[in-house]
Amino acid sequence: MPHYLRTIPLATAIALASVSVHANETSIEARLAELERQLESTRAELAAQKTSPPATTDNETETRISALERRASGNEGLSMSGYARSGLLLNEQAKSTRGGPYVTPAGPLGGAVGRLGNEPDTYVNAMFNLRRQLDNGANTLFRVAIADSVTTSNDWTSSESQLNVRQVYVELDNLPSFTGAFEDAAIWAGKRIDRDTFDIHWLDTDVVFLAGTGAGIYDMKFSDNWRSNFALYGRSFSDFQVGERDDPGTGDTDSLTLSSNNYVGNWQFMVNAISANDNDERLLDNDNTAADTGVHGMVAYHGDTFFGMSEGNFKVALLHGQGLGAEVKRIGANGDLLNDAQATRLALYGTTYLSPNWRIAPSILAEVSEDRFAEGDDYRWATINARLANEITNNFEMQYELSYQYMDLDPAGYKGRSQVSGSFGKATIAPTFKPDVGGFWKRPEIRLFASYTDWSDELNSYDSSDAFGSEGFTGGQWSFGVQAETWF
Question: Is the pLDDT of residue 352 over 60?
């Protein structure tokens, strides 16, 4: 083998060995910089040789160097990311108590309340990502996501586990043959949660959630300021009752959502068409007929200031749906909606600093809907929430949360529920430890908390099967606990 070729694997080995030896002494950035320096030295030595290597050998060398550079840049390889939380929620008698962002009667309708000091579960969503970059520049992503949620505090929870493979898909981008409006586009297929869903973290609610099994294309650019996504998602409606009430059978169908999601500057315009053939055959209460089609739309603005008043950010969205689209958050996921169902929702939140050591994140979530599950039903609810934090040291802050929700719910006899109106309130104080304070999005956090919750007595009679009004859960009570939360 020529001398100049021997130096290439030798230099590469030296570079990798150097990174390994000093892994505990230098930062990742320094290690990558050293690897790049060694690679440049190898290239320079190759260029200095007076005799050029054969073309095949040169190509092999360049391929190996390119592969090293891709690994060094983080553009390929296996990685893991996700979200997790776990903690105890105890009442004044030191027993587990009810809780969760959807604990109120408006919860099944999407009426979330503040989550700080109000979560009794252990939840994890772990994503495993395998990225590759080909020599022609194309990128591939394979993702598997696994999620589980339990409310028990036991160490072994197999009997209560809801373990679920939540995503399995392949995505391709930077394809050399894609040109024009498709030059920066990415195509995908499989089971996934849509990339461009977004949420109000302090309420643990998505503003809009699109998921299922299907295929789509992201980031078609029709102008410098306009990009579009198109997708088809399928979900299954199964084991619902069909036929006669005295002799029912079971039915199933697929809910298909055709989605168009468009971004023009800071604006987002989303339109969805939903179809579920044979869904109108399912038996509903009071002989109502379920919808087999629906439409859904959203207009949103993603601001890069705090409502134009200070540094920070905000998002606001207005959503409306009819028929199967009247489930405005979880698009295409509810088969019990009527043909005449309609719903309109407003979602708003923002974050900013009030002073160098105080930050605030207010949010509003409200919805009105009618003819949803029974003719003449009428649901109205609104949540106002504010999360505040006082950064006291580099590793400690005091967090506070105030939540208020008003409900006026008339189910028109659906599932034996009663018409009620009233309000729910929660106040939480949470001493919080973290490796580095500075912003609402920094994690991990370890919190102690105390919460006081109260609500109108009338709400206890809404549904005999919900938490309100059950033994030891009638309002005017304290809860305490500890929780860890992280993104990784």
Answer: yes
